[in-house]
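Form 7-S
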Amino acid sequence: MGLIFLGFGTLAAAVTQFAIQSTSGQQSTSGLQSTMTNWTEPLPGPMQGRASVIDGDTVEIAGQRVRFNGIDAPESRQHCDDAKGFDYPCGRRAAQALDKFLAASRPPHCSFVDRDRYGRLVGNCNRADGRSVQKWLVEQGLALDWPRYSNGAFAAEQVSAKAAQRGVWQGRFDQPWDWRDANADKVESVSEQSTGFGLLGGCNIKGNIRVNTGEKIYHVPSQEYYAETHISPLKGERWFCSEVEAQAAGWRKARR
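Output:
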């Protein structure tokens, strides 16, 4: 019996240590508990709502972070070469293009297949007009078919994009998964990935509205409750690119 308890204790310790290491010491205890709860929660049913773009393959809908299934877009800080060999921010371009695409037919509709290791929902999403978001991103060369998870579901769209030299296919680029491995210092932390690097990959200040009082409060990444604060655009909450912008819009800084 003692060995059984020891085994459970060792397993629990290993899980806890893995989670702590994954956040590189950045996530608060409350944020860690929230992420671990997400891993164990059952998947929600299909969801629709106005989407805030986080990066080229991730959106937030009704306070839930959704990672598109089977594709991988350039990272927010990733750069690629264009047809003339000039450097350009392909990660930000992908996010900006996605934002325009979604705005043309709202709201998007997503159904979920899994949660990733950060607790984000992984889903297949369509615009209101039925167009597949993932297929469009790959067709435009803004994201890649990710064979590790897609089983080649978007391979045909990728062949088309490559032949037409659209998006990243116009020049030289690193596959996003390879770029992350080679640029660990430039990739946002797990805490940022799981709770938001910000609208269009650059605005990471969270403008939250208190349910009971309606008070508008913003949180910056270094604050205690940043990780567990979720932004719901449907409730009037939003992202800001600077504290000055947040204050000008009527938000005050959280006390901690």
